[in-house]
Specification:
Elements: H1 2-11, H2 14-22, H3 27-93, H4 104-120, H5 129-145, H6 155-168, H7 174-193, H8 197-227, H9 234-276, H10 282-298, H11 304-335
């Protein structure tokens, strides 16, 4: 009874099933077929792995070097322009117009807004010329509004009202224009750094190709032991271990990097929202934006670890192609091709 059960288990074991499936094939043709399939699968997996990993890395680097500074700069410029208006109005309210050194606060804010727009000009594809022109006109109006008119006491108030209109006029004012630029820049940052459906498809290609390659390697090892009486082939064993590593490490690193990218995008949205709050004084909003911007700069998107993993994946992908070719190619050459 025990012997019958043992024979039944052996008959219906995975090894017996696979042996029956491969039965019609000659050993040489079987090994050659395994070699061709492995070369195709590993080549596809290596190419997809390189492209997918590079895209994730490029997205993280673009976010850190271009998109995030542009979003932060637009928020800072908008708040600086709003605070300049507030500081100039405070001068008029406290009757400090004409007092030496009284306009330094609003001038420093105007300078910060202008310098901020100049710094991000090469980090965004949006046209900042109109906003910079309006900012120059706005600066001139504030300057006239804080000048001392001895014979026309109402002139400062009129000029400051003109400056306020330039700043806040619906759709065409500086603040609404900057708000529209901010919205477009955040959307551009999301489209640049977020992982789209085709990137997910690339990783699916990588994982499926590597899984198929691992199964083919196991089948090749089985054929060598079952039909050729050979011990475990070291090249194929190394290729199997390497395939498993390539299926796990780059994908884990890519999604870890993507988590950092998503966290950065969330902070950029919060920075933008903080610069839009109407019930918060510009000075308070500036402090909040500065604190969040510092946190964004410290986040590790696109760091050296990702670069090291990408380089290792490139080398590993090449080895994943070479090792099976060596393992099966040498065996075929020794046992079959030389005997023609």
């Amino acid at each position: 009874m025990t012997a019958g059960r043992t024979a039944s288990r052996r008959r219906y074991s995975p090894a017996a099933f696979w042996r029956r499936r491969l039965g019609p094939w000659r050993t040489r043709r079987l090994l050659e077929a395994h070699l061709v399939v492995l070369l195709l699968l590993t080549a596809v997996a290596s190419a997809a792995l390189f492209l997918s990993g590079r895209q994730v890395q490029h997205g993280a680097e673009a976010l850190a070097s271009r998109e995030a500074p542009a979003v932060q700069g637009l928020a800072a410029a908008r708040l600086a322009a709003l605070r300049a208006d507030e500081e100039a109005g405070r001068l008029l309210e406290r009757k400090l117009i004409g007092v030496a050194g009284s306009g330094e606060a609003y001038r420093s804010q105007l300078s910060a807004a202008d310098q901020g727009l100049s710094r991000i000009a090469d980090r965004t594809d949006q046209d900042l010329g109109t906003v910079k022109g309006l900012l120059a006109t706005y600066s001139n109006s504030l300057g006239l509004g804080t000048s001392l008119y001895r014979d026309q006491p109402l002139m400062p108030e009129q000029k400051l009202q003109e400056a306020h209109s330039l700043l806040t006029r619906e759709t065409v004012g500086i603040a609404p224009r900057l708000k529209a630029l901010q919205r477009a820049q955040v959307e551009h940052a999301e489209s640049t750094a977020a992982m789209g459906w085709w990137q997910h498809a690339g990783w699916w290609v990588v994982e499926l190709s590597l899984a198929a390659a691992a199964l083919t390697l196991l089948s090749a090892l089985f054929v060598l032991r079952d039909r050729c009486g050979r011990d475990w082939n070291p090249y194929l064993l190394a290729a199997f271990v390497l395939t498993a590593l390539l299926a796990v490490v780059p994908l884990t690193t890519a999604y870890s990097t993507q988590d950092d990218v998503d966290a950065t995008l969330g902070d950029l949205r919060r920075i933008t929202a903080a610069s839009w709050q109407r019930d918060v004084p510009p000075a308070v909003a500036q402090r909040k934006v500065t604190e969040m911007s510092e946190r964004v700069r410290r986040q590790p998107a696109g760091d050296a670890w990702t670069e090291s993993v990408h380089r290792g994946s490139l080398v590993g992908g090449l080895l994943a192609v070479v090792l099976p070719a060596l393992g099966l190619g040498l065996r075929l050459d020794h046992d079959y091709w030389r005997r023609r």
